[in-house]
Amino acid sequence: MKEEMQVAINAQIQKEFYSSYLYLAMSAYCEKENLPGFAKWLKVQYQEEIEHAMKFLNHLLERGGTVKLGAIAEPPCEFGSPKALFEEVLKHEKFITASINKLYETAIAEKDYPVQVLLQWFISEQVEEESSACAIIEKLKMVGEKGAPLMYIDKELSYRK
Ligand code: OFO
């Protein structure tokens, strides 16, 4: 596996772990704000992000590459209203989508076909990630962010497995 490809995948592993760290911080914040359903949804998201990081890490290992884990930055601990928090989720997912697309361009330039196949899963996943954040933002816009309607959304989010 070419060096440039390995560097790019290691950088993506770091971003996926940051995503997990960010969503764990958001989950803890929601728990503190008495929004257990939001907290649960974000905790599932945190676990999914670790799986994303591991898909890249395992691919590197399977191809005889070198795993070089970078430092994970400290995420914020205050996120404002539920809508503001989900706007942050969407913004972060758009950043990850751009990063995955860039990685795909590198895989094409390096003629690394196995990485291109791996990335196709991530490209579809990013469509889903952005769409679910958008759907939650839209619901919050529709019902507002207080009282019974907020509790209803909180309950709905608690069903995520
Ligand atoms: Fe949220 O998709 Fe990975 O980072």
Summarize it.
The chain has five helices and no strands. The chain has 161 residues and is mainly α. The structure holds hydroxy diiron-OXO moiety.
- Shape descriptor reads elongated
The unreliable regions are: none
Q: What name does CATH use for the topology?
A: Ferritin
Count structural domains.
1
Question: How many DSSP E strands?
Answer: 0
Helices and strands, in N-to-C order? Answer: HHHHH
CATH hierarchy: architecture: Up-down Bundle
In DSSP terms (H or I, runs of 4 or more residues), the helix count works out at 5
Largest sheet: none
Q: Mean of the pLDDT scores?
A: 97
Residues in helices, as a percent range: over 70%
Work out the oligomeric state of the chains in this entry: single chain
Whole-Å distance between the termini?
36 Å
Rg calculated over all Cα atoms: 17 Å
Structural category is mainly alpha
Broad CATH class: Mainly Alpha
Domain Ferritin-like diiron: 1-144
GO molecular function: ferric iron binding; ferrous iron binding; ferroxidase activity; identical protein binding
InterPro entries: Ferritin (IPR001519), Ferritin-like (IPR012347), Ferritin-like_diiron (IPR009040), Ferritin-like_SF (IPR009078), Ferritin_DPS_dom (IPR008331), Ferritin_prok (IPR041719)
Enzyme class: oxidoreductase
